[in-house]
Design brief:
Number of helices of chain B: 14
Strand content of chain B: 5-15%
Shape of chain A: globular
Oligomer: heterodimer
Helix content of chain B: 40-55%
Number of helices of chain A: 15
Distance between the termini of chain A: 53 Å
Radius of gyration of chain B: 22 Å
Number of strands of chain B: 10
Order of helices and strands of chain B: HHHEHEHEHEEHHEHEHEEHHHEH
Number of strands of chain A: 2
Helix content of chain A: over 70%
CATH architecture of one domain in chain A: Orthogonal Bundle
CATH class of one domain in chain A: Mainly Alpha
Largest interface: A-B, 32 and 32 residues
CATH class of the largest domain in chain B: Alpha Beta
Structural class of chain A: mainly alpha
Strand content of chain A: under 5%
Chain lengths: 315, 367
């Protein structure tokens, strides 16, 4: 009888029973208190792969290239680090990359904040939609295409120089220089920064601003003493993203720099591919990782990890 | 047995052409293919440069090879410097390499040969009778085979030079052309010329490169653009540059596509170099066999004539007439007196010194 009654049960119940039995075999009841840790598995796998790659790169960086065989020597040495750190070329490349990261972060945030603020606070749906579409449109156009877009606008026979010529002005060198790279990067980073700032601004209630104004603060004081401090998580988050993406960028300096404004990523590429020197390329890659990590650590140290809500307490 | 009626022995035009192509191909490839029992792969992958370079290889060699053997040829346009570590890693790890044949610069091919990842091509039947240029210098056997020579010419916009072509490479230093001159971004093709233009001589290379570095330092003030093959065409097209040191193939392709470009060999000379083909180790035996046969096919008179005519470069097969537009052009060297006007640095010297020259080039232009 029992078997008869169980066979009348819906088929999916049987499937769930089988799944439960299998799950119990794989993850016994005694382990249930650790179930929460299972959620860490994807993160651990991701970090593991990253760390494994870094360990290999770190290993390569400690071997010098043998030009007779184009293989890395067996012996360990710091030659690649010495070459990278003492060479004036790489010093310039590193300083140029850091300088660009600072400039791009500053200008991007300067432009992204009002954009994000307007997008969040706009009362008309049409305005919001327009700002959102304008923000997402560049995501559908890759970085390379956007860089070539700048060539069309800023080139010798580009839009701006054609306009100058029409006005009887001489053509200007607007491309293949450092400012062109910065301009291209700011345009590329703007959507990232806006997307990271928007949730932070959304979290600031409109009533908080109203309260500040009703207490006598003008718009500027409200902005400086209420909005800006409360948007700190967004500012820190977007600074981290924009700074690190700029520091590691390859395409913009390659396309808009005219070959003479390389960033660290370009130098790494040259090390690996043009020089066939994986040791030197790896050493430069380790320097880049160290610089990026140092920046994030310093920023968190200054702003506090709690800024991003990582204060160890449940919100 | 009765004799077949004559009508049954006739064939239509299409069958005739097909049979003729197979017979002609078999003869061209030598007896090895005709008698081969090696299993044919569905396709072989050949790394190539894009644009007019890839088109020339397809029309000049790949199509003919497919017609002769039935094996499709897929061109892989991965950058030459990027395919190199992929092949090296595959060979080191015992994996099958990503390509069957690498069309490469002789310098890069020599580096791969030094690394020990190239198959010996000494047994190719079509090596006999080629010009000495085909043999890699300073290497045992044929870890690669050179297929043609090419020249890094001085390409210019005639509009910017109303008094005629530039006579000296020193024109690169003329402030009139500030920001309007271009070189390869690793100095390739210009390093030895910089030494001569800077007051040194060929004998100074590689021992004393200082005159070249001094020339580069002066050139830096003129803000040159540094790029790759494709960049030069774009820059000429967009009116960004007036002058560049680039391979004659790029200048000719630009001219053929309607861009106003001409080229010359200034008094200091131009660097002449070679490209070649090589087969990576680690391929299955039958695929390695057919990869080698592809190289062998590329060395036939027909393939060399078609391929190199399209490129506008002198082949290693002797006695092939230059294309009409390049007859008498020094950038298409065929006679000893042509080569006398050009600068050739042995591959061994390039392989051993290019990394140092590149570092110094970078130090000057990136520093």
């Amino acid at each position: 009888m029992a078997s008869n009654s169980s066979s009348k049960l819906p088929r999916r119940w049987h499937l769930f029973d089988i799944a439960e039995r299998n799950a119990a075999a794989l993850w016994p009841k005694t382990m249930h208190r650790y179930s929460g840790y299972l959620l860490l598995v994807p993160a651990i796998l991701l970090v593991f792969v990253l760390v494994l790659g870094l360990v290999y790169i770190g290993g390569y960086s400690l071997h010098e290239l043998d030009l007779a065989t184009y293989r890395l020597k067996e012996t360990f040495s710091l030659t690649n680090y010495s070459a990278a750190l003492t060479s004036t070329t790489y010093q310039s490349v590193v300083l140029r990359s850091i300088g660009a990261s600072i400039l791009v972060t500053f200008f991007t945030l300067l432009l992204a904040f009002p954009y994000a603020y307007l997008m969040v606070r706009a009362r008309q749906a049409a305005t919001k939609k327009f700002l959102l579409i304008s923000l997402f449109l560049p995501f559908f156009i890759g970085q390379i295409v956007r860089a070539y877009g700048w060539l069309i606008i800023l080139g010798q026979e580009g839009l701006i120089n054609t306009l100058f010529a029409g006005l009887g002005l001489p053509a200007m060198d607007l491309i293949y220089n450092y400012p062109a790279v910065i301009l291209g990067l700011v345009q590329y980073m703007l959507p990232f920064a806006v997307l990271l700032l928007a949730p932070a601004i959304t979290a600031i209630g409109r009533d908080v601003e109203l309260a500040s104004e009703s207490l006598g603060a003008n718009w500027m004081r409200t902005f400086l003493h209420v909005v800006l401090p409360m948007a700190k998580p967004g500012l820190v988050g977007s600074s981290v993203v924009v700074f690190t993406l700029t520091l590691t960028d390859f395409a913009m300096p390659e396309i808009l720099g005219g070959g003479t404004t390389d960033f660290i990523a370009n130098a790494i590429y040259d090390g690996f591919f043009q020089l066939s020197n994986s040791g030197l390329g790896s050493a430069l890659a380790m320097i880049l990782v160290t610089l990026g990590t140092a920046f994030v650590v310093i920023l968190f140290f200054l702003a506090g990890t709690g800024t991003l809500g990582f204060n160890g307490r449940e919100q | 047995m009765k004799n077949k009626p004559l009508e049954s022995l006739t064939m239509d035009r299409r069958d005739f052409l097909k049979t003729s192509a197979v017979v002609a191909g078999s003869v061209a490839l030598g007896p090895s293919i005709a008698l081969a029992e090696q299993k044919k792969p569905k396709e072989i992958i050949v790394r190539a440069w894009g644009g007019s370079w890839g088109e020339a290889l397809k029309t000049g060699v790949a199509d003919g090879f497919t017609q002769a053997t039935g094996i499709k040829v897929r061109l892989d346009f991965t950058e030459d410097n990027e395919i190199k570590p992929k092949i090296w890693a595959a060979v080191d790890q015992g994996r099958i390499p990503p390509i069957h044949v690498n069309w490469d610069t002789t310098t890069n091919a020599t580096i791969s040969a030094l690394r020990g990842v190239t198959v010996d091509l000494s047994d190719l039947s079509n090596l006999k009778g080629l010009l000495p240029l085909a043999k890699p210098v300073g290497m045992e056997g044929y870890p690669l085979v050179n297929t043609y020579a090419y020249v890094y010419v001085c390409a210019y916009r005639p509009e910017a030079f109303p008094d005629g072509p530039p006579q000296s490479w020193n024109v690169l230093l003329d402030p009139k052309f500030k920001g309007r001159v271009a070189l390869y971004d690793d100095g390739i093709g210009f390093n030895p010329i910089a030494v001569i233009a800077g007051g040194g001589s060929l004998k100074d290379i590689p021992g004393n490169m200082e005159p070249g570095y001094a020339f580069y330092k002066k050139l830096k003030a003129n803000k040159p653009l540094l790029g790759e093959d494709a960049d030069f065409t774009t820059w000429f097209q967009k009116g960004e540059i007036d002058l560049a040191c680039t391979i004659s193939v790029n200048a000719r392709a630009a001219k053929q596509s309607g861009i106003d470009v001409a080229w010359t060999v200034p008094k200091e000379g131009c660097k002449v170099d070679t490209d070649g083909l090589w087969v990576p180790k680690g391929l299955p035996a039958n695929e390695e066999y057919w990869a080698k046969e592809f190289v062998n096919f590329a060395l036939t008179k027909e393939a060399q004539k078609k391929w190199c005519s399209l490129l506008g470069l002198p082949p290693v097969y002797p006695g092939i007439e230059p294309p009409a537009d390049l007859a008498g052009d020094v950038s298409y060297p065929t006679k000893p007196e042509d080569f006398a006007k050009l600068v050739r640095v042995p591959s061994k010297v390039l392989v051993e010194n290019q990394p140092k020259w590149f570092a110094k080039f970078n130090e000057i232009f990136q520093g």
